[in-house]
Amino acid sequence: MSDDIYLKRTILKETVPSRHLEEGSRELRVYLPPGYNEVLSYPVVYGQDGEDLFNFGRAATLANRLIIDGELEPFILVGVDVDKKKRTSEYAPDGARHEAYARFFAEEMLPYIEDKYPVRRERRERLLIGDSLGGTVSLHLALRYPELWNRVLSLSGAFYPASQAIAARQGDLSWLQLYLYVGLQETDYETDTGVYDFVKLNREMDALLADRGADIHYVEKDGKHQWGSWQREIPDGLKHFLD
Q: Which UniProt keyword terms apply here (predicted)?
């Protein structure tokens, strides 16, 4: 089959008004599957770093391929954009803008999508996906809003001490399902807050969450802290939850 068929994607732009975000709104990208029909209902994946997820992660093309090839049922993918200068402040649980972002995501963005698109509203039909700090904020959204999300696909999550402290305070997490991936070449990655061993951080978070009963599929394989590695892992992560 020609690759051209996978590249015929439907991606819409949305602007969600917000009372919580100081800029007053946030841009979204919404991927609609082949054969999209408003009378049907679809599982939905909510992704951080929307622009990069679609452009560098090629998430819409990967979704098209999985659906067209019959590996997954059709689903909707929502990518929430971020201003990279404010990304750490929004995504890190101790960031100054984290509270506002979490409330926007759960209390404004989610209802906006559910009002406009035929997405399924059961918790088991929603998935959070994110890379690095995007994986971190996805986990914390689930911990904060367990009635909304219990499935998280984290790609090289930036599970710094503040995140681990929050995880350590949790009780029973048997309701939480995670796919945790980290690349083995991520042992000395330089970030805007220092140099970190992401393999160590992910192993520690895996242990913390497993001790509290979370259902975790943990993956380590060759890979760097970059979209080239995460792009290769996205299909397996999606199939783990949506198959």
A: Hydrolase
The dihedral region occupied by 143, where left means phi > 0, alpha psi between -120 and 50, and beta the remainder, is alpha
Sheet with 126-131: strands ordered across: 10-17, 25-32, 76-80, 44-47, 126-131, 151-155, 177-183, 215-221
Q: Strand runs (DSSP E) across 5-125, as ranges?
A: 10-17, 25-32, 44-47, 76-80
- Nearest-5° Cα angle at 14, 100 to 6: 120
Residue tagged 């509203």 (tokens): 121
C-beta of residue 52 within 8 angstroms of C-beta of residue 134: no
pLDDT in tens, 136-188: 999 999 999 999 999 999 999 999 999 999 999 999 999 999 999 999 999 99
Could you say which DSSP state residue 145 is in? -
Q: Which of 199, 203, 204, 206 is nearest to 224 (CA)?
A: 199
**pTM, rounded to two decimals:** 0.96
Q: Which residues, including other chains, have CB under 8 Å from residue 136's CB and lie 6 or more apart?
A: 91, 92, 93, 130, 154, 157, 158, 159, 160, 163
| List of domains in the chain | 4-242 (3.40.50.1820)
